[in-house]
Amino acid sequence: METMRLDKFLKVSRIIKRRTLAKEVADQGRVFVNGQQAKASTNVKAGDELTIRLGQKIIKVRVESLQESTRKEDAASLYSVLSEEKIEE
């Protein structure tokens, strides 16, 4: 089964626009893969569930497929959003 680094998947899928930012978010402990805290180097595969905290919201997505690169309009097909919630502070 194919795997891809978490930071690269976040960039290719355009959930996070830049890979350096994706790496920072992961290294700050704000990304979970299948409920486990993940580092930027964690491998993800199709079927994995990612929970990502970005600013004031938490997004849950399922990895649908992996591609080395993708066009902007196809990026959303790499994952499906399971839930999105705002955090009240």
From TrEMBL:
Any single GO BP term: rescue of stalled ribosome
SMART domains: S4
InterPro entries registered for this protein in UniProt: RqcP, S4_RNA-bd, S4_RNA-bd_sf
Keyword hit for Amino-acid biosynthesis: no
This protein's record includes keyword RNA-binding: yes
Keywords carried by this UniProt record: Protein biosynthesis, RNA-binding, rRNA-binding, tRNA-binding
RNA-binding S4 domain: residues covered: 4-68
Pfam families linked: S4
Origin: domain of life: Bacteria
GO molecular function: ribosomal large subunit binding; rRNA binding; tRNA binding
HAMAP family xref list: RqcP (MF_00871)
Physiological role: Key component of the ribosome quality control system (RQC), a ribosome-associated complex that mediates the extraction of incompletely synthesized nascent chains from stalled ribosomes and their subsequent degradation. RqcH recruits Ala-charged tRNA, and with RqcP directs the elongation of stalled nascent chains on 50S ribosomal subunits, leading to non-templated C-terminal alanine extensions (Ala tail). The Ala tail promotes nascent chain degradation. RqcP is associated with the translocation-like movement of the peptidyl-tRNA from the A-site into the P-site.
Subunit details: Associates with stalled 50S ribosomal subunits. Binds to RqcH, 23S rRNA and the P-site tRNA. Does not require RqcH for association with 50S subunits.
Family the entry assigns: Belongs to the RqcP family.
Protein name: RQC P-site tRNA stabilizing factor
